[in-house]
């Protein structure tokens, strides 16, 4: 419909032009007339617009109607009053107001459409249909009238053929209107006509690939068909594009329902089984998974070497629904350990007497306060131990967990529904840990602040992966927020190309930035897997099993590395190492110390024992006659290292 403006007898009038295709829609609008007969069609049109000055032009393809001298529609105050009543849900009160305007707005399509909707909302569908026909007679392109008409025929009359006539006209009138197309899909979805619903949802997404209502609609269809992973993905895409808080709640609830159904049906286990085999191939030891309801957390990794076993063990509580995600999480811990071990970069997170004492000294004012409240010494010490271990757990796990969850999301999409539920549950406990009044009253505020940073950082990752809004729940100070931003930026620098062992750098750096590095230390791991060590086998061959234990296997290993290094160096370079290590040895070297460096061997961090071995090997190569004066009884180890290098 379009308007051209003119004047008649001093009044503002318009000439209105309507064009109808010669199709089933035209027939329905004019009383199911036979549209193949020009004469009958002309008579039906004249009868409908009786009293109007019109010109009708009919050809094989379409009908054109020109209205002459119609006064331009004006919406009086009564129209706005009636629409406001409808907005408030007072449809019965709006109906008589609309009726009183019929003569004033008899040529206004929107008037009839609003009036019809009031009847539809009160269950008077026949009256609504009659008014919608009037609306479309004055504007056949009124998409909202077309949509409401199709809606009524689907949901109230179950007449899909008629409904489709109107919905097709919507697509013809406004083929790229994703809102209307998605609404039509929703109508068919509610009516249980899933194939038609899918068609219109996809049409909407062709126009706007990120329209959340259409994404949600397809998610519902996939859920009903049992394709839960696809349903979850579409729900997540809808959540990413939610336009308001209400939509966020709806889509978040949908994802939770789908994920819960996914877990109940035991889906995703094949992916976990395949992942277990992948990690198992990285280690020479077996990996076992078992239930243990006595563990303090929902799942736990016990690395073989730490427990003097010949297998790694993943334990979990059997009352956890999303256990597959937790097992995958622990397996990824092991995967990272094995990757670091292959490069000789794995580190052990430790806390000795000094670190524990520092923490207890920091907790002393809290202990006095608790004692004043009547708590026994044993309970206070137990609480201090709990806070100590909990704090160190966050220091160690927070950076690594960011990498782990990112890895699971990217590489194990079949476990995303479980990951979503798991991270949701963890998130609730994490916010409680830093907001619960009882916890705040008993824990030093400085520790709460630092744990809050770690927990908010984990929340940010959850938000990043699934477009939820959990970080905003944390009451962060500006300083805490700045630290979260800083840590997140640093994580993203490593995120896409993490090298083995780099997670330990973040543990150390973030611990330092939070002034927590006084309570832990990272120590280079030294393994003694004799059954997998070719040097051990070589030792056995050369010396016999009865004397093998007299040889320091770790010294042999270090010597082999030293010989490999010196093999590509000239005599002057070896001599430089010899004299520098001699100077250090003269001042005394603690074999257990870490983080030493040599100017003559740039780019490498040494332990005290490694410095002593490089000292011995360098002198053995350039001045073997002085070996006896070094005070190091490494003769047997050096002979074995030379033969096994």
Give an overview in words.
With 645 residues, the protein is of the alpha+beta class. It folds into 5 domains: 2-71, no CATH class; 74-139, Alpha Horseshoe (Serine Threonine Protein Phosphatase 5, Tetratricopeptide repeat); 271-342, no CATH class; 358-524, no CATH class; 530-644, no CATH class. Helices cover 61% and strands 10% of the residues. It is built from 27 helices and 11 strands. The protein has a 4-stranded antiparallel β-sheet with strand order 1-2-4-3, covered by helices on one side. Strands 5-7-6 form a 3-stranded mixed β-sheet, with helices on one face. The longest helix is centred in the middle third of the chain and has 35 residues, at 377-411. The radius of gyration is 39 Å and the shape is elongated. 35% of the residues are buried.
Q: End-to-end span in angstroms?
A: 90 Å
Q: How many H/I helices?
A: 27
Mean of all residue-level pLDDT scores: 89
Give a count of the beta strands, DSSP E runs of length 2 or more.
Answer: 11
The helix-and-strand class reads alpha+beta
Shape: elongated
Q: What is the radius of gyration computed over CA atoms, rounded to a whole number of angstroms?
A: 39 Å
Strand order of the largest sheet: 1-2-4-3
Kindly give the count of domains: 5
**Biggest pleated-sheet summary:** 4 strands, antiparallel
Write the layout of secondary structure elements.
Blueprint: E1 2-8, E2 11-21, H1 24-29, H2 38-48, E3 54-58, E4 62-71, H3 77-87, H4 91-99, H5 109-121, H6 125-138, H7 143-155, H8 160-173, H9 178-190, H10 194-207, H11 212-224, H12 228-240, H13 245-264, H14 269-280, E5 286-291, E6 299-302, E7 311-316, H15 323-342, E8 347-350, H16 353-372, H17 377-411, H18 416-433, H19 437-442, H20 445-466, H21 478-495, H22 503-513, E9 521-524, H23 534-543, H24 553-567, H25 571-586, E10 596-598, E11 601-606, H26 608-622, H27 635-644
Parallel strand pairs: 5-7
Antiparallel strand pairs: 1-2, 2-4, 3-4, 6-7, 8-9, 10-11
